Amino acid sequence: MQALYAQLLVGLINGSFYALLSLGLAVIFGMLNIINFAHGALYMMGAFCAYFLLSIGGIGYWWALLLAPIIVGIFGMVLERTMLQWIAGLDHLYGLLLTFGLALIIQGVFQNFFGSSGLPYAIPEQLRGGMNLGFMFLPVYRGWVVIFSLVVCLATWFLIERTRLGAYLRAATENPTLVRAFGINVPRMITLTYGLGVGLAALAGVLSAPINQVRPLMGENIIIVVFAVVVIGGMGSIMGSIITGFALGVVEGLTKYFYPEASNTVVFVLMVLVLLVKPTGLTGRAA
Amino acid sequence: MKSKFIASLLLGTALTLAGGSIASAGDKTVKIGALSDQSGLYADLGGPGSTLATQMAIEDSGLTAKGWKIDVISGDHQNKPDIGTSIARQWFDVDKVDIIVDVPNSGVALAVNNVVKEKNGVYINSGAATSDLTNAQCSPNTVHWTYDTYMLAHTTGQALVKAGGSTWFFLTADYAFGAALERDTTAVVTANGGKVIGGVKHPLNTSDFSSFLLQAQSSGAKVIGLANAGGDTTNTIKQAAEFGINKGGQKLAALLLFLTDVKSIGLDIAQGLNFTETFYWDMNDQTRAFSDRFAKRMKNGAPPTMVQAGVYAGVMHYFKALDALGENPHDGVKVVDKMKSIPTEDALFGKGEIQPNGRTIHTAYLFEVKKPSESKGPWDLYKLVGSVPGDQAFTPLDKSACALLKK
Question: Can you provide one Gene Ontology molecular function annotated for this UniProt record (chain A) (predicted)?
């Protein structure tokens, strides 16, 4: 029984990465209608950015949490301005193919320079060690990841669903012409939204760097799972992504306990089941 | 007119036949295919470095000066047996490759083993670990150079059991390699009075090991045996430190650890780990000289791993056999037989031999990862703690299940 509690908690920890990443994807899809396949590569860039900040500039983890999302976010905005905006009105497939190609290029460039086995990034001094919860040894850093990502997820949800800025954003995606008539710069807004989504991916990358190796292919596997999360949660639904992200982490953790060989596939089995029963996803609205 | 035509046809045929036989008598062409994981989790320990090692062997062999024409091509098997075999088939059928080298990933290695046998090529495997390559699935076309799961189990595994690691829990990569390493280590543990009390199989290329580590932790086993490799091992070791596994009194047994893995984990976390390799760049003047030349040509300046060193030494030995034969007969079995008849000796692995089952035996070394304070340079990572002679480290011939031995 104790082991089960431990697996639930570990699932929640992984779920926080899924939630953060799927949140960014959902924001980008919901606002820009782009299926952002470059998300995994941008997550990887976040981790590398933290590594560079430390090894070149001597800037530690705490500043990296702030700076890496901004730097990678700006890179994302450049991508949006130079490439993505030209395919805005086209079918989803074009965005998917373009971002998939971008992901391959970005990963390829990093792999070319840094190999495949990864670079070390230490857990910050203040978050080392762990505590004995009775049923498991919880590394302090993992606890921090859960709390921090939960706060970021809820803040993002609040920003988009409950503030005036969020209302503009949602209106701009519904009817850009009308919103532009009110004097709001819609293209700039879209660029900033893409930057926000990318920033969230980079933030997840920084959080992940001390746990996983900083590797060029670190985003390649996780992105597939995260897409399943977004689909199960309902494409574009912010709250759906957050809840599904955490929930799937737990389901995956339990699978690792009961039947580890299936841990990589359980998410997709769930996705198939959900889509069969509810094609719009758990919280998605019908298109 | 008609007779003239027939005469010229006959003459032409005769000339072609003669030309053909002249060409085959002095055929000094060789094509080498370096088949590796060029982009995935084993790319740093083999990959482009293995192609470079092959290239260096060609240059160092001196055969080109003797009129040989030797080419090397490389391929990426992406850790998928189907891709590996289709590349191998194309190389033999279309590109006229004579020899395939490296091939890390035991699943791919065993699949390619069958293709090379079918096409009667030469197969010098350095990257794969499974001991089945020279046992149940041995082939007259195959030489297994650097290391294997039997050797890892009988060096690292044995040393840890003798040091008091009586109960074991395995974290095993769920494919041919993990299964072979777990099987061979289990045999050693039980033979030495230890006991395996549990294990978990994880998918290849997993990034999060916390669930598995928790199971290992709660099992209470004294030793957690890592029957995985590359990126999987580095992530496990890193996350084990995070979960306080070592501090809790359990010992991690990294059964297979490469230079690039230790570099990637960092000495802070990896220090004190015991493991086995058959080559380390900083062993003596000869290994250092080779490694310097190698590192200068690697994009990231890394010295060779034991897999890359094994590719170099294996190809060098292949050239010795060709030189002795005087030509390339393009007959895999004949060349491999010649390789087996010559004792192996090179700057990287020292003296050894290729056994009739295709297993190359040479000394294996037990290393310990240095403390950060002991390390004097970016690649100064290992401390030598012991060595095991080749005939004790590798499968004894009387225990080998290879059908070639039953002639």
Answer: transmembrane transporter activity
